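Collaborator request, handled under Task 6.
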Amino acid sequence: VLKRTEVIDNTLNPDFVRKYILDYFFEEKQNLLLCRHTPRCMHFKCDFLGQVYCTLGEIVGSPASRLEKPLGGIPGKKCGTIILSAEELGNCRDYTTMQFCANKLDKKDFFGKSDPFMVFYRSNEDGTFTICHKTEVMKNTLNPVWQPFSIPVRALCNGDYDRTIKVEVYDWDRDGSHDFIGEFTTSYKELCRGQSQLNVYEVSGDKDSQYCYLLRFPAALLLTASFPLFICFSTQIHFTVAIDFTASNGNPSQSTSLHYMNPYQMNAYAMALKAVGEIIQDYDSDKMFPALGFGAKLPPDGRVSHEFPLNGNIENPYCNGMQGILEAYHQSLKTVQLYGPTNFAPVVNHVARYAAAVQDGSQYFVLLIITDGVISDMAQTKEAIVNAAKLPMSIIIVGVGQAEFDAMVELDGDDVRISSRGKLAERDIVQFVPFRDYMDRTGNHVLSMARLAKDVLAEIPDQLISYMKSRGIKPNTDPPPPQTQLSVGVGIH
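Structure tokens returned to the collaborator:
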């Protein structure tokens, strides 16, 4: 048992007061099992009244982060309804800005003065320390004035204002063997006192009388609009999938094909789709998803298409949940002819047209492309991505098979932001992973697909926030009062 509510006597409609703090990760499927019991006071035993399965993502992704589900678990009996709500803890969204200077630091360089920088550490529950911030290096000075910096309060002290913060000062060396100058400790509570004698710290090291001073600390915290806040009150996520039907995948009727439908095991396309889709579907209220294919000849005339609906319905390409997409995918393999080339631009532009129509922050679009090979329309795809980077949109690319994916890495843009016709992408909106990196040789596909989903979805929250910030968009409601972690409450009717 992870958590337990209080007992409420003599009622069929309890509204539980006790809340629980849970760590929330958008990119992970966090399963919850809630059971309802009634105690028998004389023997401290419980009668089972019902249970419900859900995910934390289902709660967060529901309107106003309020999920209502029927209780089950007792055959032939109606067990009532459970209402679950979630809100983000206030101090998880707090940022603070501070600035330090130092005086008479130790001279560590034989020629010239020191090149000092500061390293901040958050203390952990077990007494160890985790690095949470480094300042810039101030060249050739013993009296540095570092630039102001902003940091989440949670990163600095995990929301505990009395927790120890350790600060070390080093002299930078080009070869990485930085010389230790000294250290001091403080806490967020002490820093909140602001610029005063209370925030002058002796830097203990090899030299006496060297000090660090807090120059700047704001009286008020900067409250930022977080991903859970947008999802809770403002933004609906729309998920679209596009599947590669080019001939390089191999004949679907042969076991060597990447599209081969083994009756005992899903192929790579289906596994990737299920791994990502089962998480992101929790954030779509109606669970209806457009599913497209590209690179195939369509019946009856053999026309090549690079954005055809998997369900065959041009007017309504939506599939009901992940199972609906998988069924449409399997049906398409029986009706279309794998062909080519591998063009991404049509499906990117397809989703971008919808994103361009709604740029007020109320909707955000995620496109999942699953492909096996080299892109044929690289220039057009780069142009489409550069244009899409201005829109509320993210792109996930999963590469299946053993092909070289150099072009996909270029589209990812982690090292070099992609450009088209001399114009840089406004944001990094593409995440690429090769499916083969997640194949577990022991056969544990559940864990390997969980890792796949975590890696491809991890950047979505930051990408959504970066779009909102670039447009000055804030959630359309005031944030909940201070109480990412989430506080989860329960009611039963």
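The cover message to the collaborator said: "The first strand starts at residue 20 and ends at 22. The chain has three domains: 20-87, 94-223, 227-470. Please let us know whether this matches your experimental observations."
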